[in-house]
Design goal:
alpha+beta, Trna Endonuclease, Chain: A, domain 1, 2 domains, 57% helix
Length: 374
């Protein structure tokens, strides 16, 4: 029986329901495809290592050479480190082969012999025997979830987090937080495990299916640009548009480089709101905008980005990168310049001359917030 659309409010409700349901289905379908893609990449690498006619010629250079060739072909997320992770993913969850469609089975790098159900049970990994069925795993968790699980070396611990993550519908950030807080170890020591589980799940950040495409792996897989999916709010998006124009219009040497610049620090992705290169100061200028009151965490985040740029992007001819943090909550504005590493007095004086003043930035931000909020 179809939804009741005999009055306007029911019509609105029905359309909203259809939109949310199909958006969630689309998000799950994309995540499943990405997960299977990465597993199949691992399968190909494993098979090549075992039977590749020329694999000895590459040796330890295999992953470096493979990453370089795939990068030239535009295959996303296939750097050397990721290729290692795909191989580990394949080895940790070999039973995923049983979830492949007939079409995907045809592209496997090896033939699948017919197995009995008893033989299938024998090849299941310890975590698969202890944890959730693999079909449920790939249908309920994104690849970003699975990557965190693959990093766990203990099969029992991995199975524990599989179950808890699906049971609590945890976001990727929440799964990472629970692992870091030693939830598994605390559960083993706790005398009241049920109470501990209730506390853990009551405060947990849950996953929102409609935001699934914001996963950095997913948007690269779909060929989307970070700026299309990563803005924190419509207000921030509009302010970034105007801020970008404002800094370029100052004419003090700003050269625009990137927006929502994605950087990988360890196993964590960060996104710098705006990146400029200042041709007079000979340094990168990183701008972070927070539609919120100032927090020390924001300074820590910006300093992390600056340190990464100093180590990975800065050349011998460059001065250390500069960070500008803008925080606003209605009429409250705080502008902080992170001057980490700039101990050259001449450079600091030139910095103060060439970059917009604190007062300019504050006036600009307050004015634009008023405009956008009407």
């Amino acid at each position: 029986m179809g939804s009741d659309v005999t009055n306007f409010s029911h019509l609105v409700s029905a359309i909203k329901s259809v939109h949310e349901n199909l958006a969630a289905q689309a998000g799950r379908a994309v995540n499943i495809s990405l997960t299977l893609r990465n597993w199949l990449i691992g399968a190909y690498i494993a098979e090549y290592e075992l039977h590749g006619a020329d694999c000895a010629a590459y040796g330890d250079r295999l992953f470096t050479e493979l990453a370089e060739h795939l990068g030239k072909l535009g295959v996303s997320n296939c750097n050397r480190r990721q290729l290692y992770r795909y191989l580990r993913f394949y080895r940790v969850y070999p039973e995923i082969v049983g979830t492949l469609s007939p079409q995907l089975r045809e592209v496997l790098p090896y033939a699948l012999p017919p197995r009995s159900s008893a033989e299938d049970e024998k090849v299941r990994t310890p975590s698969a025997q202890l944890g959730v069925p693999v079909e449920k795993l790939i249908h309920n968790l994104s690849y970003s979830h699975i990557e965190l699980l693959v990093d766990l070396n203990d099969d029992v611990k991995r199975a524990f987090y599989e179950i808890e993550c699906i049971r609590g519908n945890w976001s990727v950030r929440e799964l990472k937080r629970q692992i870091a807080s030693l939830y598994y170890e605390r559960s083993g020591l706790s005398k009241d495990k049920k109470k501990l589980a209730e506390l853990a799940h009551s405060a947990a950040m849950q996953n929102e299916p409609k935001l699934a495409v914001r996963d950095p792996y997913v948007f690269e897989f779909l060929g989307l640009k970070p700026s299309e999916v990563m803005s924190e709010s419509s207000l921030e998006d509009q302010l970034l548009d105007k801020l970008q124009e404002f800094l370029l219009e100052l004419g003090h040497g700003f050269c625009f480089e990137a927006r929502q610049k994605r950087i990988l620090i360890g196993d964590t992705y960060g996104f710098v709101d705006l990146v400029f290169y200042h041709r007079i100061l000979k340094c990168h200028v990183l701008v972070e905008l927070k539609v919120d009151a100032f927090s020390h965490e924001y300074i820590g985040q910006l300093n992390t980005y600056l340190s990464w740029y100093r180590r990975n992007v800065m050349t011998d001819a460059d001065n250390p990168p500069v960070g500008i943090l803008l925080c606003t909550q209605k009429d409250q504005t705080l502008v902080e310049y992170a001057l980490a590493g700039m101990d050259n007095n001449l450079f600091v004086s030139r910095y103060q001359l060439e970059l917009p003043t604190r007062e300019e930035m504050q006036r600009f931000l307050e004015e634009k917030v008023r405009e956008i909020e009407g």
